[in-house]
Amino acid sequence: MEKFTQFIVKSNKIIILIFLIITVICGILAIGVKVNYNLEDYLPKDSNSTIGLNIMKEEFDEDFPSANVMLTDVSIQQALACKEKLKNIPHVTSVTWLDDVVGIDVLLSTPFEYIDNTTTEAYYKDNNALISLAIEPGYELDTVNELHKIIGEENALSGSSVNKAALQEMSSSETLKAMLILVPLIILILLFTTSSYIEPLIYLVSIGIAILINMGTNIFFNDISFLTKTVSPILQLAVSLDYAIFLMHSFKEYRTEHEPKEAMKMAIKKSISSISGSAATTIIGFLALIFMRFGIGMDLGLNLAKGVALSFISIMVFMPALTILCLKLLEKTKHKSISMDSKKAGKWLMKLRIPLLVIALLVIVPSFLAKGNIDFEYGSGNAVNEERVEQDSKIIEENFGQMNQIVILVPNDDIGKQTVLNDDLEKLEGVKEIISYDSMINSSIPFEFVEGMDSMFNSQNYSRIILYTDYETESVRTFEALDNISNTISDYYNDFYIIGESASVYDIKNVVTADNTIVTVVAVLGIFLVLLVIFKSISIPMILVFTIESAIWINLAFTYFQDKPLNYIGFLIINTVQLGATVDYAIFITDRYVSDRTLHMPKEAMTKTLTNNITAILISAGLLAFAGFTLTLTSTNPIISELGVLLSRGTVLSFAMVSMALPALLILLDFMIRKTTFKHNFYVTKKKRGNLK
């Protein structure tokens, strides 16, 4: 450790130069990182909807329709002409309309009133035409913009690809907006709480370098999710500030009695244990996400863990070097800081510790029960909050009703079996129409007699059945309907696939429900083990994990009592982020308490700990809470906005539990802590103190 600290203070210019070179390179690489806006891509490869979609692409050479174009006040000929224009748009892989279902010859030669209206009304109604399109994944934004140019303002456009395009457009600038608000806010807060005008800039430069390196190293991944792109830099900044503040806090303590370089060496030695422990718990909390089968966990977890690790390295290596280089500026830009009376705050918290603990315990029990009964949202459709998208969707629904298309693939070995299946599916609630080989051609006609005419319905191995339903994309009713559809098909086939946006959301629901338990257990056990190593105690990790988990339960309970659904992404992230990020406060307080406990009895030790350190914890928590608030303020994506609310509220609750409940727990359980802590060297009595070594 001595050689390490000596190298930092002596080779500070070399260290700064190396970091700056790496940052420039990574800043350039960050431009080339691809962003994925399709949550369905993160489903496990063995999920039913994913396998079915791949089979349909191979067998039928087309994608599942992902957009709907409604043309108002048009003739059949005009609709057909527009369809041809839509086909020529780059990255539109298929276009489907009425002529594909009844046949172009039938449509043009038969009086319209003689065509079965149960079929036609799904495509042409009251002189309005509804055309379905499939758009190549990854090209939604450009394609949707081209579609708008062709159809104009008077026509409407909706569907999952339209939602993804709007999501892409909204998300592209939101990280920058959030940073433009958060960074000045952080600087303002730090200016009031630090003793130098240059000190906040040292924090932000040190962490900013780590953020840019993290963004640049994402080039080694195929792509990152829009969620990771938006959330990761904000969380990395907010979480990492703890480490910078704690290190500088130690430096200032030693600076009063030692030369700057010696003070920095001592500060690194003193802080590295608690900061590395804090970073380790945060990293483990994030890494727990990689155990999700749903790929968004791997994407977000790796990125956040990598970001925190890079921030730790930057703060422990680059920031000390930069601080030494800027010593003269720090001295010249000194100012009087505004700080709370921590002595009074410490005494007040100690005086009220028992009532505060009782209140906390009374709140924890109903919160634990409430968080287990939260209703969740699993799709990304509600993530779009864009005016035209909402208006167009409403117009299409008003004219054609709720149109949720579901595709079923079954083996084509028995056409008679399909006929019976169609009859059973038609009886299910919410099924408006079924389009299949049986309904459009006739099951009595063998496949070989209609070769070429049945390509929409039959491939080499599978038959395709299209269901038009009035189900919402996501609801309890929709999930029950999908269960009924699946049960009905399973009476006839063992091998079948259900495809569509609702089917994908249904698979997401089933996957993440199991993922939640795994992620929580891994995060708690991982952090427990880190705390076990840090404190060499069995009881202290249990107390700290309980403290933060309680804050998480209370945070989630707010959602339940507000009687509104919670997006599963926010739930999964906050379970790990709040635990991993805010357990730092508990570690910092407990680490200082354990140190003070070697010289004082429990009450005196805790009073000293709170008096000396509560301000640093408050600043750190305040910055993280403001980061969450900034996400809420700047994001038009309800998922990210909701995550911001959870983060800001959770941080406040974690701070409350650490400052109000944790002190009482550590004092009350002092005997158990002494019995379960290895070589604690705690102060017991003045008479016995000399024997405790």
CATH level-four homologous superfamily name of the largest domain: Multidrug efflux transporter AcrB transmembrane domain
Q: Portion of residues in helices?
A: 55-70%
Cα Rg:
30 Å
CATH topology of the largest domain: Multidrug efflux transporter AcrB transmembrane fold
Q: How many strand elements?
A: 13
The name of the CATH architecture of the largest domain is Up-down Bundle
- Percentage of residues in strands: 5-15%
Morphology: elongated
CATH class of the largest domain: Mainly Alpha
Mean pLDDT: 84
Q: How many angstroms separate the termini?
A: 24 Å
Counting structural domains, the number is 3
Spans of at least 5 consecutive residues whose pLDDT stays below 50 are 443-453, 687-693
Protein topology:
Blueprint: H1 2-10, H2 12-30, E1 35-36, H3 48-60, E2 67-71, H4 76-87, E3 92-96, H5 98-102, H6 104-109, H7 117-120, E4 124-125, E5 128-135, H8 140-151, E6 156-158, H9 160-171, H10 174-193, H11 199-217, E7 224-225, H12 226-255, H13 260-287, H14 296-325, H15 327-332, H16 342-351, H17 353-371, E8 376-377, H18 387-400, E9 404-411, H19 415-426, E10 431-435, H20 437-440, E11 462-469, H21 476-490, E12 497-499, H22 501-535, H23 539-561, E13 566-567, H24 568-597, H25 602-634, H26 638-668, H27 670-676
Parallel strand pairs: 1-7, 8-13
Antiparallel strand pairs: 2-5, 2-6, 3-5, 4-5, 9-11, 9-12, 10-11
Structure, explained:
- This protein has 27 helices and 13 strands.
- With 693 residues, the protein is α+β, with helices and mostly antiparallel strands.
- The protein folds into 3 domains: 2-32 and 173-373 and 507-691, Multidrug efflux transporter AcrB transmembrane fold (Up-down Bundle); 45-165, Alpha-Beta Plaits (2-Layer Sandwich), CATH 3.30.70; 387-506, Alpha-Beta Plaits, CATH 3.30.70.
- The strands form 4 sheets. Strands 2, 3, 4, 5 and 6 form a 5-stranded antiparallel beta sheet that branches.
